[in-house]
Specification:
Largest sheet: 6 strands, mixed
Order of helices and strands: EEEEHEEH
Number of helices: 2
Number of strands: 6
Radius of gyration: 12 Å
Distance between the termini: 11 Å
Length: about 100
Amino acid sequence: MTSQAFTAHGDHVRVTVRLTPNGGRDGIDGVESGADGQDHLKVRVRAIPEKGKANQALIAVLAKEIGVAKNRISFISGETQRKKILRIDADPEDVLERLAELAGK
């Protein structure tokens, strides 16, 4: 499955995420198209959106699911919004393969 929610850029992958804080559980709910027609990876976390707790939980969930260290994931934009763009500094081929598996859940 190919998605515009994640794209390879040389030595890293960019991932568009729609985060749901206070989501009752930590997990990835696949890929969804938004009202703007753009795809995004749906992620929910138990953490509250206060003092960066939900963002830290988002990075922890992605790192665990993709199999990369947390310090390899950083924000490009959207730290204070539901829709975020993240950069994952790892082998793009491996990351895209893992994201495709997660998106198919």
